[in-house]
Amino acid sequence: MALSLSHFPILCLLSSSILHTVTAAVVNYDFNITWLKANPDGAFERPTIGINGQWPIPAITATVGDTVIVDVHNQLGNQTTGLHFHGLFQNGTSHMDGPARVTQCPIGPGTSFRYNFTINQPGTYWYHSHDAGQYPDGLRGALVVHDPQSPYKGQFGEEQVLTLSDWYHDQMPPLLRQFMGVTNPTGAEPVPNSALVNDTQNLQFKVEPGKTYMLRIINIGAFAAQYLWFEGHSMRIVEVDGVYTEPAEADMIYLTPAQRVSVLITTKDDTASNFAFMGSMDQVSLLAACTCVADSWHAKDLFDKIPPGLNPNVTGWLVYDEGKELPTPAVLEAFEPFDDFTLVPYDRQPLFDKVDYSFNLDVKMDNLGDGAN
Description:
The protein is mainly beta and 373 residues long. The chain is built from two helices and 23 strands. The strands form six sheets. It has a six-stranded mixed beta sheet, with no helix packed on it. A five-stranded mixed beta sheet has the order 11-23-18-13-16, with no helix packed on it. It has a four-stranded mixed beta sheet with strand order 2-1-4-6, with no helix packed on it. A hairpin with a 7-residue loop joins strand 1 and strand 2.
């Protein structure tokens, strides 16, 4: 029997559905969460939470439409845990979102839990413990969702993940007790001991001349925002927090904890020099901790007290030639990051121009009756 053209739209829909079913995959991860020792800044070895005996922990990667299954086995012995997949909407699967005591019970020592959800969002995300401030002890890593329909497909030759983070020599339980205790009535946050890039320092990123790289940059830190810049190279911002943007040129970007920015960087045409890149923790912030008084903005210390000898910077290098020197980074007079309020979404979805209801929520950081903040 011959089909008429009236059946064509139905056939197209069926073909699209079948194609999606064929291309979607089930991605499985089996994670044993355990303690191990790590010394990423070379200054202090400490207990760190790893996965399958390794730290930094592995990235989770998938493609749009994939089902991700993560079997988590808590072998910490002395702490509960859980995983949150930061930035994913979890539409219809909120019980897989991971915040302990909110959407699930914490995973007790010696027990297991299976996360099972489908990802329909492309872009750069991360996953981390969401139990009692645990993740700065090491349980945090990248989550990347590839997109066969990306508007930037074919415009870069290689992609890499670049994580920024702060690092504490003390473990989280005592730091949290101190932070929330009566001896800290102002609520001063613990100041990190160092900054890391890809959970290390002095990272060397081997590059080829005349090649464009996609860098998926994630601030997986606990507290500190960071500035990031590449000497002698500009960045083209193409994605922020899972949303494609129109390309935007930037010499320096600013990432708060949990923020993700994907950039394209095109390398030089020769191998005459290597180039430093820098991450720098924001200590006195005009961006992250401002107060508004009488319609004027005043900088506020992000770090309430800066410990003597603290180095807020972390250095890496774009290495064109391993036989050439790794140059000392230049000293900056001021931080001048790209204004991400000027970014334009790639789909050009307009802002809402009419507000039906407006709600104001006043939040105050205050002390409890016993003096704890």
